[in-house]
Amino acid sequence: MRIDVVSIFPEYLAPLELSLIGKARQDGLLDLKVHDLRSFTTDRHRTVDDTPYGGGAGMVMKPEPWAEALAAVGGDAAARPVLIVPSPAGERFTQAMAYELAEAPQLVFACGRYEGIDERVLEWAAGHFDVRPVSLGDYVLNGGEVAVLAMVEAVGRLLPGVVGNPESLVEESHSDGLLEYPVYTKPSSWRGRDIPEVLLSGNHAKIARFRRDEQLRRTADRRPDLIERLAPESLDKADRALLDELGYDVADGGPRRRAEA
Ligand code: SAM
Question: Is residue 29 pLDDT above 90, yes or no?
Fold first, then answer.
């Protein structure tokens, strides 16, 4: 996969040289380049922002350098690279989106700063890219770089060969609509706390059931919204019994929390 990131702070993306993503780049699994938006300006001051039309606080990123930068990194326009524009006003980034983006041959990330990028850049770019404004969550960051670090890591680890054991991607939080079960390692007893005994039983079916129950319990506790999104056909008899115990009715539309008596 090819990834291009455009930012006025290229140094901010230095962590992408580390750990699994850094290794994936070294191994040629990921061709990732960071570009300085200011190198696409033409004035002496390398200006990338100006005051907003209509007034108001803050500055807006100018369209000209963005168009130059995106035209330069756009790669194969016929393949319509995905242009991800981090924005708190975008579609929410999810694991499902990470899987979808991991299939694309090229991703381009446009890191906004100030009050964001002149809207006409996105309109123009739609002629060359599949443009996707994407939000990391319902809060406001100073710039798109932190969001790009998160998204590149989430997408990059799904590329074939990046994570040593691909099995570890299968049982993670959000891979099946639930949060992951609690995990433990040696020693089996630590500061008076023993690991759940079933994990030492060697009984794979029992361990799988224990883990599934823990997933359901943890998700009901921390993210009840995810429980209500579970497809009823994904729930077996034991799941349904536990959900009943946790206060959910499982109907055709999926689990619904029972009203408090
Ligand atoms: N005025 C913008 C608004 O209210 O939608 C916020 C601009 S923010 C200060 C500057 C930049 O940070 C944005 O252009 C975007 O690139 C990035 N950013 C801020 N919050 C973000 C979030 N939740 N997800 C993704 N990017 C974000």
Answer: yes
pLDDT(187) > 70: yes
Task: Check: pTM over 0.85? Answer yes or no.
Answer: yes
Do 181 and 208 contact (CB within 8 A), yes or no? Answer: no
Cα angle, residue 107 at apex, residues 104 and 108 outer, rounded to 5°: 160
Task: Indicate if the pLDDT at residue 155 is higher than 70.
Answer: yes
Residues 6+ apart with CB under 8 A from 19: none
**Burial class for 140, CB neighbours closer than 10 Å (0-12, 13-18, 19+):** exposed
Atom index in ligand 1 nearest the CA of residue 114 equals 10
Closest by CA position to 226, among listed 251, 257, 258: 257
Which residue puts its alpha carbon closest to atom 7 of ligand 1? Answer: 115
Largest CA distance in the chain: 71
The first and second tokens of residue 194, run together, are: 């023993």
Q: Collapse the DSSP code of 69 into the 3-class scheme (helix H, G, I; strand E, B; otherwise coil) and give the result.
A: helix
46 and 150 Cβ atoms separated by less than 8 Å: no
The minimum-distance atom of ligand 1 relative to the CA of 117 is 14
Structure tokens at 135: 């939000």
Using CA atoms, how far apart are residues 17 and 20, in angstroms rounded to an integer?
9
Ligand 1 center from residue 57 Cα (angstroms): 15
